[in-house]
Amino acid sequence: MDRRQYIRTALGATAGTVALAGCLGGDGTGSSDEYPNTKLSKQEMEFDPEDVRFPAWGQRIPSATLPDALGGGETSTRGFDKPLALTFIFSNCMTACPLLTQALVSAQGKALQEGWGDAVEFAEITFDPVRDTPERLRTYAEERNVALDAGNWTFLRPETEARAKAVVQEQFGVYFEKTDPDSSGTDAGTAATESGTTSPVPSTATPTETGTRTGTPAADGDGYMFTHRSLILLVNGEGYVERFWNGDEATSTAAAELPDAMNRLRKA
């Protein structure tokens, strides 16, 4: 796969390293000789990026061409030639997804306020194309204070549920599963995420992926919701991951760390 193209010596996890998914480290810039595909310093991780399904530090994101829900036409996930903040959502989510969007909105707000909004991009890929129509995504953007008129925000909407599964889960490694809520309003067969717990992980998951999936109820009461991974990627103009926030970090620390990381990347 394309996202596995990287220099192994640049990605080997150091024994005993503490996972700080949003940590910039040092002055935030890296050596172009040692890590030719990245511009920021190496992200501290407690695992080798090769051992997880999603594109982690130093790996190139998958190439997928998807419809631009609001702008028309199609856009490739590698078609952004500026620093890109990318996440995966469904608009009826009431728990994790608004926090993922808020992290991107925080970075967009800083960029616009400080005058570098034209130097960065933001994108969200929906994995619920049936309900996430262009009209619904526009409403979601208004609800979440996305500055659509800034011209640097894109909603990518797979044509079908099967295409969403192929791109979001199979290519990007962002697990999601549609489920029917039980009588208590929680995801049947999983723990209640309103209390902060997470759903069970299939036996095929690696240890570093355990505890990163959350079930979120649909707001419109139409009978289904999703269990899904929370993930935010900060990608450089060549499509390589400079920073990632996975699981709880994506819904907690990313909002504070992403704006500064994005600013450093666009200046690197």
UniProtKB/TrEMBL annotation:
It comes from the Archaea. Cu cation binds at C93, C97. Residues 182-219 have a biased composition (Low complexity). It holds the Pfam family SCO1-SenC. Disulfide bonds join C93-C97. The keyword Zinc does not apply. Keywords: Copper, Disulfide bond, Metal-binding. GO terms for molecular function: metal ion binding. PANTHER family: ELECTRON TRANSPORT PROTIN SCO1/SENC FAMILY MEMBER (PTHR12151), LINALOOL DEHYDRATASE_ISOMERASE DOMAIN-CONTAINING PROTEIN (PTHR12151:SF25). This is SCO family protein. It comes from Halorientalis pallida.
